[in-house]
Amino acid sequence: MTPVHCVRIDDAYIAQRNAPDQATLARRRIALVGCGTIGGFLAELLTKAGAGSDGGELALVDNDVLLPQNIGRHRLGFNSVLKNKATALAEEMLRSMPGTNIHALPVDAMQAHLAGFEMVVNATGEEALGHLLTRKYRGSQFVPMLTIWVEGPGVAVRALLRDSPLAACTRCLLSLDRQPLYPAIEGEMPVGLAGHGCESLYVPFPASASVQAACLGVNILTAWSGGSPTARLRTQVLDGHFCAATPDHDPVAITDCPACGT
Ligand SMILES: [Zn+2]
After folding, report:
1. 247 alpha carbon to ligand 1 midpoint, in Å?
2. Within a domain: residue 213?
């Protein structure tokens, strides 16, 4: 007699085992735009939630190269320096989840063809790019979009889901004269820039802020996948010196929005 132990290793079981009452991202076709500090950690959480498994697809879009100064707050490390971020991240994810359908699109986000995806996640943190993507994928080309970003030098993390053409886009969070309609914190958002000298300017915040932004993103995506996308605008204040100003809710689209208006 030889005892036989059987263990399940299929992707569906792995994604569902730890969240039996939640929807997963299996079978979903998702494009993650931006494989930087937020996108790197988010790619890992998406694969843990089943993205790219069971007939699904996860495309990683970024034309940037990982440099040594990125490593302090990036999912990737020195073994990926000077590689394209999307390509290196896809390779890293496939090493740990070899059965998933993950691939890199190492191109400019505006040049990528994303119309066939069920969800485009903008983790670039670039406000203007978000507006351009919204304009590109509106009307008959509409694609649901999730935008995730860090505000100020790690003061708060936010996520906005636009799962229908009637929902507010990121430009709708500002009035037509660009005043914040749903501020993250009470009072003025501090401005902090580093990189004065040899580096170009950047907003300093620790990897922990990016991880929490990624957590916010994957939570709203699994809620969307399960058919419960509310609240579409979510905020988490990380700096205890500030008070949240806007509760999580579904913001309304502004009339004649320059980005999502038709
Ligand atoms: Zn809008």
Report:
1. 20
2. yes
Query: In order along the chain (262 residues), what is the average pLDDT of each group of 10 residues?
Result: 90 83 93 98 96 96 94 94 98 94 97 95 96 94 96 94 96 94 92 74 86 97 95 96 96 94 82
pTM, rounded to two decimals: 0.93
In DSSP terms, which residues pair with 31 in a beta bridge?
Answer: 59, 120
**Which residues, by Cβ under 5 Å, contact ligand 1, an ion?**
169, 171-172, 257, 259-260
Written as one letter, the residue type at 2 is: T
Separation of 175 CA from ligand 1 center, angstroms? Answer: 10
CATH code for the domain in which residue 145 is found: 3.40.50.720
Distance in Å, CA 233 to ligand 1 centroid: 13
C-alpha 33 – ligand 1 centre gap (Å): 19
Ligand 1 centroid from CA 65, angstroms: 31
Q: Which residues contact 77 (CB under 8 A, 6 or more apart)?
A: 71
- What's the structural domain count of the chain? 1
d(CA 103, CA 80): 16
